[in-house]
Amino acid sequence: MSPARICLCVLCRISAILRKDLSPQGHSLNTLDKFDLAILGELQKEARLTNAELAQRVGLSAAPCWRRVRALEEEGFIKGYRAEIDRRKIGLGVLAFVRLDADRNTGGLTQTMEEAIRKIPEVVSCHYISGTGTFELQVVARDLDSFSQFARDVLLHLPNVKDMHTSFSLGEVKASGALPLSHLPGKPS
Questions:
Q1: Angle between the N-to-C axes of helices 34-45 and 51-58, in degrees from 0 to 180, rounded to the nearest 10
Q2: Comparing C-alpha atoms, which of 156, 135, 160, 158 is closest to residue 147?
Q3: Which of 2, 85, 110, 162 could staple 103 via S-S, CB 3.0–4.6 A?
Q4: How many CA atoms lie within 13 A of 125 on its CB side?
Q5: Positive/negative CA dihedral, 41, 45, 48, 52
Q6: Is 148 left (phi over 0), alpha (psi -120 to 50) or beta?
Q7: pLDDT in tens, 136-145
């Protein structure tokens, strides 16, 4: 290959990395193969698999499986591992969905509100939303009295809060955090 063509290939690769189409290792959404997707699927089901068990389930030997897992971690496809805890077993019987309306949606005020929300352990999820409201939070509490106290003492005192609307979970139909993978090219059969 000529030096000019090599230079062009390198520039194309750097451009793709900057656009976030490719990771530095060369994986893009379109280059995940059936083994990568099988690894992601199996780890979503059971993250405590040993490398040997994972390799057997996806049809690879241990060393290539380990290298693929490390590459998927380094490239950000796998963000981390954690235990799924039953909130009721640890005394958190209430799950509330709280929509917070901001008084003003300016960059600085919204950022301050986001930073304050991130620091609250009872808020297990927060999304900046479209439509009515600014943020949608999932909040856990021991019981309705503790939630009520928490809402008055913490949520209503967040910076820039104009209004708050709350709905309570009456029962979970589905609470899996596993993401579907069937839409990806190279999906496992």
A1: 130
A2: 156
A3: 162
A4: 10
A5: negative
A6: alpha
A7: 999 999 999 9
Other CB atoms within 10 Å distance of the CB of residue 75: 17
Q: Look up the pTM and report it.
A: 0.73
Query: For the chain, what is the radius of gyration of the CA atoms?
Result: 22
In angstroms, the CA 106 to CA 124 distance is: 24
Dihedrals φ, ψ of 136, to 5°? Answer: -115, 120
Count the Cβ atoms, other than its own, within 10 Å of residue 12: 11
Amino acid in position 131: G
